[in-house]
Amino acid sequence: MKIPPRFSRWILSSAGGFAALFLGLSSLFAAELAVSFSFGSRGSGDGQFTEPRAIAADSSGNLYVVDGGRDDVQVFDSSGTFLFGFGSRGSGDAQFISPSAIAIDGDGNLYVLDVFRRNVQVFDSSGTFRFSFGSRGLKPGQFIAPVGIAINSLGKLYISDAGRDYVLVFDRQGEYLFEFGSRGSGNGQFQFPVGVVVDSNDNVYVLDSTRRNVQRFDSNGTFQFGFGSSGFEDGQFRFPASIAIDRDNNLYVLDNQRKDVQVFDSRGKFKFGFGDFGPRGRRLRFPSSVAVSDNGRVYVTDTIKQPAVYVFSQ
Question: Does the keyword Repeat apply (predicted)?
Answer without folding.
Answer: yes
